[in-house]
Structure formats: structure tokens, C-alpha cells
Amino acid sequence: MNLLIQIALALFFISVAGVFLVKSQILHTLICLELSFFSVNLLLIGFGSYHSDALGALFALFSLTVSAAESAIGLSILVAIHRSSQSLLYVRLPGLAG
Q1: What is the pTM of this model?
Q2: CB–CB of 30/75 below 8 Å?
Q3: Which of 11, 47, 63, 78 could bridge 39 with an S-S bond, Cβ 3.0-4.6 Å?
Q4: DSSP assignments along 33-63, one per residue
Q5: DSSP one-letter code for 86
Q6: Which of 37, 58, 39, 57 is nearest to 47 (CA)?
């Protein structure tokens, strides 16, 4: 169980570092967000199996479904942005500057 927690925490911190340190491409940010969702789901499944409870796996399945819908919407937005500006870099998208 300890190894599972360490792996999930390592994945989560790698994804957080990827979101905040590498700010060049939008697709990279989305992949890092998906990695963080995966690490949380890994913890949910691990704690559910540790306590012999199926609710952890059920909640992880629900979370994966929501994450898949978020990915589909995010990728469709990326396709629309790429068609209009021919780039996926944050620097070349003046409409996203805040």
C-alpha cells in the first residue's frame, strides 16, 4: 500500500510540475491534467482495495468517465484553436493572454 501511495504522489507532483513549469503548449497542459486525474484515481482504487470496499473503484470509474468527457471537450477546443491560428503555443494565441 505504501508503494502505491508513493507512485500516485510521484505521478501527481510530476503532473503539477508539468502544468506550472512548462507553459509552452496547451496540449502538454491537458496531458499533465489527465495524469493528475489518473493519479487520484489510482489512490481511490488502492484505498478501496485496501479497505475491501468497491466504492473506491466505483468512484474512480465515475471520475474516469468525467475525465474522458473533459478530454473530449478540451481536444475539440484545441482543434478549433488550431484551425483558426495554426498554432497551439500559448505565446501565439493573443486571445488567451490574461
Answers
A1: 0.80
A2: yes
A3: 11
A4: HHHHHHHHHHHHHHHHHHTT-THHHHHHHHH
A5: S
A6: 57
